[in-house]
Amino acid sequence: MKLHTVCLFLNLAAFWLLNSGHNTLLILLLGLASILLVLVISHKMDVVDHESQPLYLTRNIFSYYLWLTKEIIKANIVVVKHIWLGNQSISPTLRTIKISQKTDMGKVIYANSITLTPGTVAIDIIDDEVVVHALLKQDIESLLAGEMDRRVSQLER
Amino acid sequence: MFIAATLAIFVAMILAIIRGIVGPTLYDRILAVNMFGTKTVLLISLLGFVMGRPEFLDIAIVYALINFISVIGVLRYSDTNKLKHTPSNEKPLDKEY
Amino acid sequence: MDIIINISGALFLLIGSFLCISGGVGLLRFPDFYTRMHAVGVTDTLGAGMILIGLMFYSPDFLTFSKLVIILLLTLLIGPTTSHVLAKAAMHNNLMPKLQQEDNIKETSSSNY
Predict the structure, then answer these.
(1) Quick check: is B72 in a domain?
(2) Beta bridge mates, C22
(3) Which of A67, B72, C20, C52 could form a disulfide with B12 if both were Cys (CB 3.0 to 4.6 A apart)?
């Protein structure tokens, strides 16, 4: 709880400093006051916990981001190719896929990664199944192969 | 270079507007308006660089947030208040909303 | 050094412009709502990302750079959220996607949709 508060304070302070760019005393004091106000309000709302500040992810998340960026670039090239090839080349598919993540955070990361990659959109999550619409049949097959699922599960623990 | 990119963004915005006017269902229109909004964010930041005033980026940040809130608001409304006119167990394929 | 920065920035801007235009073309060209959403996904992720990274090469000071990074992060957070909410609302109001194969329709209609 203490650690999450400190982390939220640092995030808000960085956001204020990067957005304002003024270093006079008055502006800095106003910034400090508004950060404290936000901290008080978020403590009253009881939202400062491991869900809003997932610190335990920090260890592995950067390598995952790197891998996800590579995947996004590859998927973008495929989708742009099929945009210019026309309607005959696409094969829209709707399927439910099993997900193996236990925690809510893992499920959210997995579904969000599916949506962030062009060509696949996660439509709904029912218990431990996610409904995916894909532009191409290959995309669904590569999701079923489970590379992304494995990496998100690795992130979880 | 900035001007060329600005023109490209303009072309993309015009295409989005055409889809928003034509678009058969309500959701196509919302999708087009959403894309128009994200392109506006890019346009504002590009225009800031064209005019040599990078302060425009603040406006771009605020516009991105407003765009997000407005799209989510419209969708909450359509989800709860039933903008649709068809009963739920009919087949509403290709029907105008 | 200056020339390298200029050329790479211009290259990023060019790729971003091309991606944005092709996303717009896909928005007009694809047959139904769900496939159009994928076309918008292209402009939301890599199109916006390339243009903002291209602008980062030209940024005069650190504050401008950091604001561009903030806009990029906001775009990457907002894009998938909006498309997921849009797809979910469309699905709940019974807008069915056009699918390619017959067996797909059977398979999905057996599982709640």
Answers:
(1) yes
(2) none
(3) C20
Domain count, chain A: 2
B45 contact residues in C (CB cutoff 8 A): 52, 55, 68, 71
Name the A residues in 35-74 with CB < 8 Å from any C CB.
Answer: 72-73
- Integer Cα distance of B9 and B43 in angstroms: 7
Does the distance separating the beta carbons of A18 and C84 come in below 8 Å? no
Q: Is the same domain home to A64 and A37? A: no
Q: Which domain holds residue A71?
A: 60-156
**Whether A12 and A65 share a structural domain:** no
The Cα-based distances of C99 to A153, C33, C104 in angstroms read 31, 12, 7
Residue C88 structure tokens:
């979910």
pLDDT on residue A144: 84
Domains of chain C, by residue range, sit at: 2-109
Q: Do B84 and C93 touch (CB under 8 A)?
A: yes
Residues of A in contact with C95 (CB under 8 A): none
pLDDT reported for residue A41: 92
Tokens of A115: 């949506």
Q: Chains contacting C with at least 3 CB pairs below 8 Å? A: A, B
Assembly ipTM: 0.84
Ranking B11-20, B40-49, B88-97, C91-100 by mean pLDDT, the lowest is: B88-97
CB contact under 8 A, B31 and C64: no
User: C22 vs A84: CB contact, 8 Å cut-off?
Assistant: yes
Chain-chain contact of A121 with C113 (C-beta, under 8 angstroms)? no
Count Cβ atoms below 10 Å from residue A72 Cβ, excluding itself. Answer: 21
Look up residue B71 and give its amino acid: V
Looking at the structure of chain B, the number of domains it has is 1
**pLDDT band for position C42 (cuts 50, 70, 90):** confident
Strands (E), A28-136: 93-98, 120-126, 129-134
